[in-house]
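Dear U.,

Please find below the material for section 3 of the report. The protein was modelled together with nicotinamide-adenine-dinucleotide; I have listed the sequence and SMILES used, followed by the predicted complex structure.
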Amino acid sequence: MPTYPIAGKTIFITGAAGGIGAATARTLHSRGANVVLADWGIDATSALARELAGDRTLALPVDVTDTVALAEAVDRTADRFGGLDVVFANAGIGADPPATIATIEEATFERVVEVDLLGVWRTVRAALPHVIAARGHVLVTASVYAYFNGMANAPYAMSKAGVEQFGRALHAELGIHGASAGVLYPGWVHTPIAGPAFGSHDITTRMREIAFPSLLGKAITPARVADAVARGIENRSARVMVPRRWVPFSALRGVLNPVTDLIAERHPELRQLLRRLEESAGATGKSRQTDTPR
Ligand SMILES: NC(=O)c1ccc[n+]([C@@H]2O[C@H](COP(=O)([O-])OP(=O)(O)OC[C@H]3O[C@@H](n4cnc5c(N)ncnc54)[C@H](O)[C@@H]3O)[C@@H](O)[C@H]2O)c1
């Protein structure tokens, strides 16, 4: 029996227009939750609200970096459903185009951190008084990149490592209020954010094939993540790892990280791919530096 049944709960989901967010909204709605679909892609969330039908959905235009918009969205949620029990801080972006730390555009790097790390903090901060009052649950979306080497993906990986720490601290702190928090660690999932590792960018696609051998590099469906999220909420799980094949890598990260870091540094083809990535970004980087006074 679940310790925290989903039916009747009001669940605020950011990134609800995206692969994992939308799949999770469908799953939670089918189990009787009120779902708030928060995303800056309001056309997509409105379409999803129509698909789900009935009076247990609310689509709201929200940029998770905007504290005012988040506060308004939380107020509208509480007005509509009489409170807010669970927040799933899930919106995220990757650097586009992928780049190394030496060549990435400053604005691109900082926007990824602002959405992926500060967006989680701002979302949770806005919702937390309601979650505490309801003795509810917070789930934040990290990634296996919280502990896997983030080469060619540094602002994303550093944000996900930060989200993990945020979720762990919150888990410990919310216990005194009778509420709870957990961290979601998806492996690869077939959604637009994973596009550059699955064909839309040839260098990072090849990097994934080398750095994530065999099953670790295979993507799962958003629906599978959604099932794991639902179970994680129902059980107030501190960690939700999906697919489960990543569990030993997380458990043994203290031993495995130095080994995989060494491979990342020394692997001849990875080095060559990094060089190609930097060469392809070279022109952009130089023109940015002449444009930007420092
Ligand atoms: N797909 C994967 O392989 C994978 C793996 C691990 C973790 N994740 C994480 O899962 C989460 C969901 O990603 P997804 O795979 O569904 O990708 P996605 O690109 O399908 O969805 C991301 C959603 O976030 C929304 N979003 C982006 N910036 C926003 C902002 N500032 N304000 C509001 N909404 C914003 C987008 O509109 C989109 O709907 C992300 O945090 C991502 O980092 C994804």
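For the text of the report, you could mention the following: Residues 106-133 form the longest helix (28 residues).

Regards,
Y.
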